[in-house]
Every structure is written in C-alpha cells, then in structure tokens.
Amino acid sequence: SCVNSNDGPQIPQVDIKKMFSVGGQRLVAARAEALKNGGVAALRPVGEAALEFGKCVTKCFVEEKNGDGFCYEKKRWFFV
C-alpha cells in the first residue's frame, strides 16, 4: 500500500501496466518456444490455464480495479 507521509519507506516508481504488458509478452514468447518442443505437449493444458489466469488477473487488477491509476500514481509528492 502507499505511504501516507514523507517519513515512510521510499519506493521507486514503476509503471505497473508496462510491467504486466512486458511479462505477458514474455509468457507468450516462452509458450511459443515451449510448444516447439514435443516433450512438453502433456503440459500444454497447464500452460494454457496459466496464460488465461494471467489475462484474468491483468484485466481485473490493471484494467478494471485500477483503471484510473494506482495509489502511488496519485500521490507523486511522496516520491524522492
């Protein structure tokens, strides 16, 4: 959660939306590479489920719940 004063711990600002986007791109790339390997075919349903879960978390956490920004984005004056 965000700090309510300048005396609290200072956390470097990051772009969470970008972090989720880059993470999703890496997962999709890793999935494509893994599917080239015939030995992982049995794990495909697990991988597909993980990707769908990731999409759901991204939609809920990034797009819907925090669509207007995250708390630290609204309180920039607490960052050094």
Task: Describe what this molecule looks like in 3D.
It is a single chain. With 80 residues, the chain is an all-alpha fold. The protein has a domain at 16-66. Helices cover 57% and strands 0% of the residues. The protein contains three helices and no strands. Helix 1 packs antiparallel against helix 2.
List keywords for this structure.
elongated; 0% strand; 80 residues
State the secondary-structure class: mainly alpha
Q: Determine the mean pLDDT.
A: 76
Q: Give the biggest beta sheet.
A: none
Proportion of helical residues = 55-70%
**Distance between the amino and carboxyl termini:** 17 Å
Provide the β-strand percentage band: under 5%
Number of helices: 3
Low-confidence stretches: none
Order of helices and strands: HHH
Shape designation: elongated
- The gyration radius over C-alpha positions equals 18 Å
Query: Could you give the count of β-strands?
Result: 0
Protein topology:
Elements: H1 16-35, H2 44-65, H3 71-74
Helix pairs in contact: 1-2
In short:
With 80 residues, the protein is mainly α. The protein contains 3 helices and no strands.
